[in-house]
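Marked as duplicate of an earlier ticket. Keeping the data here for the record.
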Amino acid sequence: MKRTYTTGVAVAIAAATVAGFFYLTKTPPSPPEAQVTAPAPSAQVDARPVEPAILHPLPEVPAAQLPPLDSSDDTVRDALVNYFGRQSVQQLFGLDSMVRHMVATIDNLPRETVATRLLPTKPVPGAFIVGKSGGDTTIAPANAARYLPYVELARRTDAAQLVSLYINFYPLFQAAYVDLGYPKGYFNDRLVEVIDHLLAAPTADGPLKLTQPHIVYKFADPQLERASAGHKIMLRMGSQNALVVKAKLREIRAELVRGAAPARQ
């Protein structure tokens, strides 16, 4: 029973990690948002919040069957080691507030940046590798090799098993999403939305040109430089890696929207 339980937690974590590990390099922090005071609603406007419709509902699982969100780190760590092996966990994962960090990272992938302190995985090892192509500075083909351990994690993940067990442990992810500031939101809908965003990432037809106005490299194409954090990392990992990742994302998405029944314990 204990092995089934911990393995289930690991796969639930993997479900979110497969979507969340794509942004694995450091980026500058987002500028602070300006304070905006919302106007008071008029007497004619119904100011009550509208609860959004759930697009991709999952079977309900009693939260009492799970450890509390703020006390789940030890269980998460042990489950990851049980599922992936100690070496992979030590190499790839951060182990503090795992569920919260995964939910926050996934939610921010379609935005401009993701704070590195919130990443559920460790940054890609090694320095960013650049090269020359026709006199231009470009992302070197060798840079793609830095992402191979993460891409291999995605390749070997069984989408159906992963999502079935993710459903069993969904209350942890939903609780973290509510705490993130979405009291009426449904995390699975957001996860599907983010996967769709990643699937829409552009594909590089050739070497991606870079500029280096200061210390940090930027895409020479202004449109690519304005792209989301998720799209940028899909470009940085290399076209072949991106193909593998997108194929696995399509499998996971199909399972997420199917509303599979919870796996038996």
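See parent ticket for discussion. The chain has a mean pLDDT of 77.
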